[in-house]
Amino acid sequence: MINRRLTTLSVIVIATGLALLTASTIVTPAFAIKRFFNCMTDAANKNGKLSVDDVNTCYDKEYHTVATHSHSH
Q: Residue 48: what are its φ and ψ, rounded to 5°?
C-alpha cells in the first residue's frame, strides 16, 4: 500500500515538473517577442522613424545575440 502511494506521488511530481518545464519554454519566447515589439515602438516614437539599426539593436537586446551575432550593412 505504501509502495503504491509512493509510485503515485512520484508520477504526479514528474508530471508536474514536465508541465512546468514545457510551460516555461513556451511563455519565455512569448514575452521576448512582446519586449522586442515594445522596444521597436519606443525607438520609432523617440526618433520619429524606425531604422534597420533600431531593429537590430532591439533584436540584440531582447534575444541577447550581441556576442554571437553581428549585423552587417
A: 80, 0
Predicted TM-score of the model (pTM)? 0.53
Which amino acid, residue 55? V
In Å, what is the CA distance from 45 to each residue of 17, 33, 38, 42? 42, 18, 10, 5
C-alpha cell at 21: 518545464
pLDDT tens for 17-38 read 998 888 877 777 778 888 889 9
Assess contact for 43 and 50: CB atoms under 8 A.
Answer: yes
Rounded-to-integer distance, Cα 70 and Cα 47, Å:
23
